[in-house]
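Reviewers of the previous submission asked for a worked example of the structure-prediction workflow described in the proposal, so we include one complete record here. The input consisted solely of the amino acid sequence. No template or homolog information was supplied to the procedure at any stage.
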Amino acid sequence: STWGGDIRTMVWRVLCSFAAGVVSVLVLQKFHKKRGSIHYKIQDHVISEESEEVEEIVREQLARTISFVGEEGFQSLRDAFVIVVGLGGVGSHAAHMIVRSGIEKIRLIDFDQVTLSSLNRHAVATRADVGLPKVEVMQSHLLEVCPHVQIDARKTLFSLESAEALLDGKPTFVLDCIDNIDTKVDLLKFCHERNIPVISSMGAGGRADPTRIRIADISETQEDPLSRAVRARLRRLNIQSGIKCVFSNERTPVGVRALMHFLVSKHRTGTASSSR
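From that input alone, the workflow returned the following structure tokens.
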């Protein structure tokens, strides 16, 4: 690594760079890959996965990534397994950039469908996708970009009852992109108690300054109503720290504070969507 330090720190910085501080963090862990037959078509030339040309294509496609992180870092990305829970405005962008940066095994979890109102923030959805499951739309788009990637799409709502099955496979990292507080706290509690690496996306609604985005422990979050509410719930579960968060510490303009309190109250009552 050109950054020095251990590989865990190196991959953390790589993913944070690619996801622009939204929610992408990884650590090194190798996984055995089992892929079915895939065919690539570049112009009129069809290539089978068994061909050595596939590796050449992947390396050419990710040449800038390799230059940025080096061979060791690139292999770390390829070997990682990431689970993204929630495919709204945060999760869709995180999943999109994670796959484009070299991750080759990803699980997408979301129960919801694409709506017209979500098109202003979803990473890849179009009007033609309205009414379709977000996981299917995301999977289809990502496979067009990176057909060699293993994508496990789960159209379901995360819950403690389904957590064991949804988070199995020893993930390198879980990305919490949920905005319903009950579901969010359940996910964070489950990961924390089982030592599953997780990073949680907190609030940025009504904020306009990207330089105020921060990555810190849940105990160090500030100026964010969603972080405050989640932190209070976790404290009641005897969880004080140990969960990394992405949040904005920009002070909310007076004119939008009423809106922010309204949104947080919806999250608390469970009337908001469970994915951003």
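The two ends are 34 Å apart (CA to CA). We consider this example representative of the routine output the project will generate in years two and three.
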